[in-house]
From TrEMBL:
Keywords: Repeat. InterPro entries: PPR_rpt, TPR-like_helical_dom_sf. Gene3D superfamilies: Tetratricopeptide repeat domain. This is Pentatricopeptide repeat-containing protein. Pfam families: PPR. It comes from the Eukaryota.
Amino acid sequence: MLNSHRLCRPFSSLIDQQKKDSNLVKFKIPGKLGGRNLNPIPLPHRTILDPRGQDLDYVNVAHSHLVHSDWAKLDKLAPNLTPFRVKHILLKIQKDYVLSLEFFNWVDTQNPNLYTLDTRSIILHILTKSSKFKSAESILKKILDSGSIHLPSKLFESILNSYRLCDSSPRVFDSLFKMYAHMRKLRNALDTFCQMKDYGFSRL
């Protein structure tokens, strides 16, 4: 059984000594936490319901307006936007990180209550997969600033569950870990590292 108090002190001191690059916070994990996991937990393969009927029509029309940069027509669709539709539009345009971020920001101007952890996780996958770490970390900071005590575990789970759906890369977890460290949320950073190791994402 690991002693969390014993681990936190060296973890904190090592954070201060770390060398940072633009993509990943690097440091040496003491004791049993170091080393690769040779038997990682299999990644979950979650699916979501396909849009049908009016939802499908909406997603297709909105997608057409987006690819043609017809924001005026898209504005007219805003009152009927739902989290389900936001999610599917993001998935439909995920190969274009610029358009994805523009749409994500547009949703914020229309109704930020449409954001869910799922939609935020999808945009994080899109941005980190394209190495747009500053944009991803800006979104992460807004999420984490909400201050919910249960948010860190729910956020990791949401990112994990949409990982395969977005054909993502481990860089999304690197960014999450780096943001916790930057915000001095050392317990969350350590928990994230342990979860990354459990699923085989740790590079240390």
